[in-house]
Design brief:
The structure holds two protein chains of two kinds. By secondary structure, chain A is of the alpha+beta class. Chain A folds into three domains: 113 residues, Butyryl-Coa Dehydrogenase, subunit A, domain 1 (Orthogonal Bundle), CATH 1.10.540; 108 residues, Butyryl-CoA Dehydrogenase, subunit A, domain 2, CATH 2.40.110.10; 150 residues, Butyryl-CoA Dehydrogenase, subunit A, domain 3 (Up-down Bundle), CATH 1.20.140. In chain A, 51% of the residues lie in helices and 15% in strands. Chain A has eleven helices and ten strands. In chain A, a hairpin with a 2-residue loop joins β2 and β3. Chain A is globular. Chain B is α/β, with parallel strands linked by helices. Chain B has one domain: HUPs (Rossmann fold, 3-Layer(aba) Sandwich), CATH 3.40.50.620. Chain B has six helices and 13 strands. In chain B, β9 and β10 form a beta hairpin. The chains are: A alpha+beta, B alpha/beta. The interface between A and B is medium-sized, with 17 and 10 residues.
Chain lengths: 383, 273
């Protein structure tokens, strides 16, 4: 299939494919089984300049668009969604700095994140606040040149592994979502600790952990874009990042389709390969068609964002919503094609099915995304 | 001014395990076969890049600089593997290419490489893959060192220490480890136990794409036709052929006990057990 990539875009794809074949595939089953964080693979991704993509050139990046980030994320997801999630979550952590950070914050943090020397994380979710950002309870109270943070974040991807955290807090609870503020908090800051490591259904090799703030003093220079800008920072970040979640979904679905095609050609039943059975052929055809549709929507959303269009929430949400539902369906059908073998851990498709589920949940549960799409339709009309 | 140069010698080889030979010309069939960096040379490139990454900050304290250079002898399309080396972090590359170089054996190849290396100043270390996938002789490294009159350590498995004047190297032999301290300049050959080669970087690939690779010919190297290529070679390939395999398959009959008896008898008859 031809996607009209430029030479540089094709290079990104080729680099990721090499990482997938040489580094990720040989290790992914063990990493999944034993929840091993892919530290060495992430270092390799850093050395290959993949964290530099979306970071502006003056801060050590390569200044590409979201489309290039989606290409890299899709390919890495073909290998392993844990690795792709770790990669993408660092991006999620530093996008608020790129979008709304001060010049000093950009100069201080972006070069080391672009090189992959350090990882970032995005700390928004709490036990009582995920989809409902206004329900955040982690507090930040100003005290001279510092803010004092207290509270607990939950299910934070790259928690414990990342060095730099974008943390969403309440500076004025009376204003609800409009009273939220985002801070950059460095690992090692006094009063910033890590809690429980989660044992998950899928993306088991990625780190998911609690962040605990106990009278944690953060310099006021680390406030992103001023008090009350937290909700806007989160929403603008998601507008940029959601197509990459769609790309994760497309990647894992593509991997499952490739496995299903290969298996259907070698698995013999009734004296012939199951690929000769129309029931299997139609499943494969539907899987491939849905993946192409999802990929087209993800690429389109990314390109619209890269064009500088301002109102991208709807399209961005659509790309993540559609692609993640496709990934769940396609990976489930891949397990079905494998039959009993698909249910066993000796084959990779059961892991892909477990991994795919998270794409329907994180960075906006698909039900919340439907709300965003519907509200935007009602507010701005169809076009 | 570059104070230290590390030279990595690499070769383009057919990227397949299914080597085919043209029975009429006795040469390798190269048409339609993808070419790659000789697999052992990938470890040589990686080691060169790692040494630079390790030494550059130390040398930088005294304002000194280090550079890695990839060198290959081959037809014009060999520039591709040099570009790959640049994508992997090598600083610059030189292609030795001349119709007169064709047909060179290890002796003529080593001589050509040696003359090219003499063109550089301040080279301290030459790194080669321990052998090529196609020629498979492992001789170019030692011959090159001989022609340059420098120490050579083959099959290095780790560089324990290195400074501007000396290096300590460990290598694994069949039954023992050996550790050497040698003075620089020197040449070493490496195998797959020395490192894990990296994946190319995007900036490296972009640099490689725009890199003009200089080509040095026999005139530039002041070499005579009698010294190089087929004419300068002491050995010549007269014939290459695939060994013919004769297999005989015999299916054993009878019940399992009879089959085991027959198999045992046959193995004994062949002096296998």
């Amino acid at each position: 299939m031809h996607y009209f990539l430029t030479e540089e875009q094709q290079m990104i794809v080729d680099i990721c494919r090499q990482i997938v074949e040489e580094r990720i595939k040989p290790q992914r089953a063990e990493m999944d089984e034993n929840c091993i964080f892919p530290a060495e693979i992430i270092k390799e991704i850093g050395k290959s300049d993949l964290f530099r993509l979306f970071v502006p050139e003056q801060y050590g990046g390569m200044g590409t668009g979201i489309f290039e980030v989606c290409l890299a994320t899709e390919e890495l997801s073909r290998g392993d969604l844990s690795v792709a999630t770790t990669y993408a979550a660092s991006g999620l952590g530093f996008i608020p700095i790129i979008l709304l950070g001060s010049e000093e914050q950009k100069k201080k943090y972006l070069p080391q994140l672009a090189s992959g020397e350090k990882l970032a994380a995005f700390g928004l979710t709490e036990p009582g606040a995920g989809s409902d950002v206004g329900a955040i309870r982690t507090k930040a109270v100003k005290d001279g040149d510092f803010y004092i943070l207290n509270g607990t974040k939950q299910w934070i991807t790259n928690g414990g592994e990342a060095d730099i955290y974008t943390v969403f807090t309440m500076t004025d609870p009376s204003k609800g979502a409009r009273g939220a503020s985002a801070f950059i908090v460095e690992k090692g800051t006094k009063g910033f600790d890590f809690g429980k490591k989660e044992n998950k259904l899928g993306i088991r090799a990625s780190a998911t952990r609690e962040l605990i703030f106990t009278d944690c003093r953060v310099p006021k220079e680390n406030l992103i874009a001023g008090e009350g800008m937290g909700f806007i920072a989160a929403m603008r970040t998601f507008d940029q990042s959601r197509p990459a979640v769609g790309a994760q979904a497309v990647g894992v679905a593509q991997a499952a389709l490739e496995e299903a095609i290969n298996y259907s050609k070698v698995r013999k039943q009734f004296g012939a390969s199951i690929a000769s059975l129309q029931a299997i052929q139609h499943l494969l055809a539907d899987m491939a068609t849905q993946i192409e549709a999802a990929r087209a929507l993800v690429y389109h959303a990314a390109k619209v964002i890269d064009s500088g269009e301002k109102n991208v929430s709807r399209l961005s949400a659509m790309s993540k919503l559609f692609a993640s539902d496709v990934a769940m369906k396609v990976t489930t059908d891949a397990v079905q094609i494998f039959g009993g073998y698909g249910f066993m851990k000796e084959y990779p498709v059961e892991k892909m099915m477990r991994d795919a589920k998270i794409t329907q949940i994180y960075e906006g549960a698909n039900q919340v995304l439907r709300n965003i799409i519907a509200l935007d339709l009602i507010k701005r009309g169809v076009l | 001014m570059i104070d230290i140069k590390i030279i990595v010698c690499i070769k383009q080889v057919p990227g397949t395990t299914e080597i085919k030979i043209n029975p009429e010309t006795n040469t390798l069939v190269r048409e339609g076969i993808e070419t790659v960096i000789n697999p052992f040379d990938a470890y040589a490139i990686e080691e060169g890049v790692r040494l630079k990454e390790k030494l550059a900050p130390l040398l930088g304290q005294t304002g000194e600089e280090i550079e890695t250079i990839a060198l290959t002898m081959g037809p014009p399309q060999s520039a591709e593997v040099l570009k790959e080396a640049i994508a992997l972090g090598i600083d610059k590359a030189v292609l030795l290419s001349d119709r007169a170089f064709a047909g060179a054996d290890t002796w003529a190849t080593a001589l050509t490489l040696a003359e090219a290396i003499k063109k550089f100043d301040d080279w301290k270390l030459i790194i080669l893959g321990k052998q090529t996938l196609d020629g498979d002789t492992g001789q170019v490294g030692p011959e090159l060192a001989q022609k340059l009159n420098i120490p050579f350590i083959g099959y290095a498995s780790s560089i324990l220490d290195i400074n501007k004047n000396r290096m300590t190297i460990k290598r694994l032999m069949e039954d023992r480890y050996e550790t050497f301290e040698i003075r620089l300049p020197a040449a070493i050959s490496v195998g797959k136990d020395i490192n894990i080669p990296r994946v190319p970087s995007l900036r490296g690939k972009l640099k490689a794409k725009n890199e003009a690779i200089p080509v040095w010919d026999k005139n530039y190297l002041n070499l005579k036709s009698s010294q190089i290529g087929l004419e300068g070679s002491y050995t010549q390939v007269i014939k290459i052929f695939m060994p013919e395999h004769h297999y005989e398959v015999k299916m054993l009959e009878g019940n399992p006990d009879q089959q085991v008896d027959e198999l045992y008898g046959k193995l004994k008859e062949l002096n296998i057990i």
